[in-house]
Automatic annotation (TrEMBL):
<dbReference type="GO" id="GO:0051539">
    <property type="term" value="F:4 iron, 4 sulfur cluster binding"/>
</dbReference>
<keyword id="KW-0100">Branched-chain amino acid biosynthesis</keyword>
<feature type="domain" description="Aconitase/3-isopropylmalate dehydratase large subunit alpha/beta/alpha">
    <location>
        <begin position="277"/>
        <end position="400"/>
    </location>
</feature>
<feature type="binding site">
    <location>
        <position position="289"/>
    </location>
    <ligand>
        <name>[4Fe-4S] cluster</name>
    </ligand>
</feature>
<dbReference type="InterPro" id="IPR015931">
    <property type="entry name" value="Acnase/IPM_dHydase_lsu_aba_1/3"/>
</dbReference>
<dbReference type="InterPro" id="IPR018136">
    <property type="entry name" value="Aconitase_4Fe-4S_BS"/>
</dbReference>
<dbReference type="GO" id="GO:0046872">
    <property type="term" value="F:metal ion binding"/>
</dbReference>
<dbReference type="InterPro" id="IPR036008">
    <property type="entry name" value="Aconitase_4Fe-4S_dom"/>
</dbReference>
<dbReference type="Pfam" id="PF00330">
    <property type="entry name" value="Aconitase"/>
</dbReference>
<feature type="domain" description="Aconitase/3-isopropylmalate dehydratase large subunit alpha/beta/alpha">
    <location>
        <begin position="20"/>
        <end position="227"/>
    </location>
</feature>
<dbReference type="GO" id="GO:0009098">
    <property type="term" value="P:L-leucine biosynthetic process"/>
</dbReference>
<dbReference type="InterPro" id="IPR011826">
    <property type="entry name" value="HAcnase/IPMdehydase_lsu_prok"/>
</dbReference>
<dbReference type="InterPro" id="IPR050067">
    <property type="entry name" value="IPM_dehydratase_rel_enz"/>
</dbReference>
<keyword id="KW-0028">Amino-acid biosynthesis</keyword>
<comment type="similarity">
    <text>Belongs to the aconitase/IPM isomerase family. LeuC type 2 subfamily.</text>
</comment>
<keyword id="KW-0432">Leucine biosynthesis</keyword>
<comment type="function">
    <text>Catalyzes the isomerization between 2-isopropylmalate and 3-isopropylmalate, via the formation of 2-isopropylmaleate.</text>
</comment>
Length: 409
């Protein structure tokens, strides 16, 4: 019987064929935890599970990304506790302040690979689907258990297929596809399902991460792009099979897709940018695991080259990783952004969860390239957050109001 990508991966990990709807106990290939939840995971491991050691120090990755560098004395202290624990455990995949957001970092380091089962203490662990891994976010207790035993369980998810056809027009990209899918599926449209994104094999790995991270925003357990057309080599048992069963199919014609914008304060409150009316902004924030990649900075730099950010607008650029920042430094992308007036932050999550590095004040409006715009996400509950692509972000920074890249090129 033909299987979806999730069924194939979970069957391998369970050591027997499993189908959607079944509960499977599986071996995990990698457990990721970050600074935000590591202290509670460690506490649960030690105090509730009585586990002094992780099951395999080579297969637990720890990343300091959420409040990096530390913004308070308390955070600094907690992060030092995590560093000491990492040393005691002999964990080799430890990435400290400045290396970047866990999701791109584990892909860049080659730790996340096609066909793996990866669980992380972060809802956007669906990100690893950008290389065709089954990535899923879990709470502290489940992560503690997986880190201590190397095993976890899943109800094997049904799969929602998003099938793209055609090619993006200039100024339209993977973020618009993600937002278009959210508009169609709504925030609960793929609850506990996996999303498979087909017809996007022309995208780079990090462009695929935009789709994979966004899968959780429609409720998904995992979000996978078939691992073809990328440098990572997939196991030969992992491929799209004719006849696999999808619980729902969403078709998107990229040839006619317009720039999409999600208006406050729900991710699925999406419309064509052209139907939005004139929305003035105070802040444009380019970053996150969804759209802080090299590709995003380069696309923004192409629009901003030789121009200036509109008076009164603050443009924040926070690279998703050091690798992305290095590449953007080497080819002049970063210089272009700085010359246009951008403020550059340390690679990491930045202000995405409103904890530091550019949180929003009451009454401010922000055009954000991230994935969540609920009230209070980036600071004040009285701030307004609009989600869009890096190209829309750059056009908006120039215009001072939410603008179509086509109109400023
Ligand atoms: C802090 C962390 C647990 C959280 C998540 O799980 O996603 C954060 O990364 C987010 O994007 O809201
Ligand atoms: S960049 Fe934002 S969405 Fe991504 S892991 Fe960090 S806080 Fe979560």
């Amino acid at each position: 019987m033909a299987q979806t990508l999730s069924e194939q991966i979970l069957s391998q990990a369970a050591g027997k064929p499993v189908r959607a709807g079944e509960v499977a106990t599986v071996a995990v290939d990698l457990v990721m935890m970050h600074d935000s939840l590591s202290p509670s995971i460690i506490k649960i491991m030690e105090q509730e599970l009585g586990a002094e050691r992780v099951w395999d120090p080579e297969r637990v990755a720890v990343v300091v990304d959420h409040v990096a560098p530390a913004a308070t004395v308390q955070t600094a202290e907690k992060q030092n506790e995590v560093r000491r624990w990492v040393q005691r455990q002999g964990i080799t995949h430890f990435y400290d302040v400045g290396r970047g957001i866990s999701h791109p970092v584990l892909v860049e380091e080659g730790v996340a690979q096609p066909g793996m089962v990866i669980v992380g203490s972060d809802s956007h662990s669906t990100a690893y689907g950008c290389v065709g891994a089954f990535g899923s976010g879990m709470g502290s207790t489940d992560i503690a258990l997986a880190a201590a035993t190397g095993r976890t369980w899943f109800r094997v998810p049904e799969t929602v297929l998003v099938r793209a056809t055609g090619r993006f027009r200039p100024g339209v990209n993977a973020k618009d596809l993600a937002l278009r899918a959210a508009r169609e599926l709504r925030a609960d449209g793929a609850t506990y399902a996996a999303v498979e994104w087909h017809g996007v094999e022309f995208l780079t790995v990090m462009e695929r991460m935009t789709l994979a991270t966004f899968s959780i925003e429609v409720g998904a357990k995992a979000g996978l792009v078939p691992p073809v057309g990328i440098p990572q080599v997939a196991p030969e048992w992992l491929r799209v099979e004719e006849g696999a069963i999808y619980s729902r199919v969403v078709e998107v014609d990229l040839n006619t897709l317009q720039p999409q914008v999600s208006a406050p304060s729900f991710v699925d409150n999406v419309s064509d940018l052209g139907d939005l009316g004139r929305v003035a902004v105070d802040v444009v924030y380019l970053g996150t695991c969804t759209n802080g990649h090299y590709e995003d900075m380069a696309a923004a730099a192409r629009i901003l080259a030789g121009k200036q950010v509109a008076p009164g607008v603050r443009l924040m650029v926070v690279p998703a990783s050091r690798d992305a920042m290095l590449r953007a430094t080497e080819d002049g992308t970063l210089a272009t952004l700085l010359a246009a007036g951008a403020a550059i932050g340390t690679p990491g999550c930045g202000a995405c969860i409103g904890r530091h590095m550019g949180v929003l004040g009451p009454g401010e409006t922000c055009l954000f390239t991230g994935n969540r715009n609920f009230r209070g996400r980036m600071g004040s509950p009285e701030a307004n957050i609009y989600l869009a692509s890096a190209e829309v972000a750059a056009a908006t920074a120039l215009a001072g109001y939410i603008a179509d890249p086509q109109d400023v090129l």
